[in-house]
Amino acid sequence: xxxxxxxxxxxxxxxxxxxxxxxxxxxxxxxxxxxxxxxxxxxxxxxxxxxxxxxxxxxxxxxxxxxxxxxxxxxxxxxxxxxxxxxxxxxxxxxxxxxxxxxxxxxxxxxxxxxxxxxxxxxxxxxxxxxxxxxxxxxxxxxxxxxxxxxxxxxxxxxxxxxxxxxxxxxxxxxxxxxxxxxxxxxxxxxxxxxxxxxxxxxxxxxxxxxxxxxxxxxxxxxxxxxxxxxxxxxxxxxxxxxxxxxxxxxxxxxxxxxxxxxxxxxxxxxxxxxxxxxxxxxxxxxxxxxxxxxxxxxxxxxxxxxxxxxxxxxxxxxxxxxxx
Length: 325
Known about the structure:
A 5-stranded antiparallel beta sheet has the order 6-5-4-3-7, with helices on one face. A 4-stranded antiparallel beta sheet has the order 9-10-8-11. Strands 1-2 form a two-stranded antiparallel ribbon. It folds into 4 domains: about 5-65, Orthogonal Bundle (Arc Repressor Mutant, subunit A), CATH 1.10.10.10; about 80-125, no CATH class; about 140-230, Roll (SH3 type barrels); about 240-325, Alpha-Beta Plaits, CATH 3.30.70. The longest helix is centred in the last third of the chain and has 19 residues, at about 305-325. It is α+β, with helices and mostly antiparallel strands. Helix content is about 40%, strand content about 25%. It has 11 helices and 11 strands.
């Protein structure tokens, strides 16, 4: 009876097989893996796409991989190996991470050199693990943009950015001193000093239309502290004014809401009716108002009055928009 391998297991099996200094034909790999020739060629094509240097020798009719290509054996225990491979095989495709193919190749190198019993344990365990994707911002040319930003941050080089702005409502050109890259709230951002704005600004990578390295370098930025910059903003944008916020979540959603640490200042007070009151000290109301609206009629704004008014205005707008339909 032929043993069926998972996709990850097949690729690792092909790697270990072709690295043995023997040459294997497609027919040989079919027998070893118990899959069709079409599947074998699809797996080989994926190996090629991530840069594995296998080669085909017409004389022998077989494939092989240079044994010097992979890392020497690594002393991982089960938990270390499983956690690393879970990131590579299960999380890699569900986050907009740069260098995805490189991450997969690095993971396959590690997996290829694990002791057989550890590798089998990981493959069996991962076959029973599923991580479902959440909505993410798709960024075209993420690798190229990321490399350009990383290089500029490291070399302290100025960048010319043309990006779409939600505030100016039009494309803006800026000379940026890039300080820091941040992934938050399903998107990538670069934070730095913008010369036209004369202040530190945050730019969404997905809204960058063009990026041009400049010959000039900038000074400063070494003491930039991300936590200090974000302060107590709800997500990304501090507004320069702190508010004590109290929200009462009704019993239907109280447990689910309280289980998540939404903000560093969060405190919870359970009420006798099964509701929960969450308290925060937040810089600005612009971002949190949309989060509150997401809970519809299951949340009440106890304080401040300014937030309650903003929620009321947005709710009225929602009603009016639907009345017009």
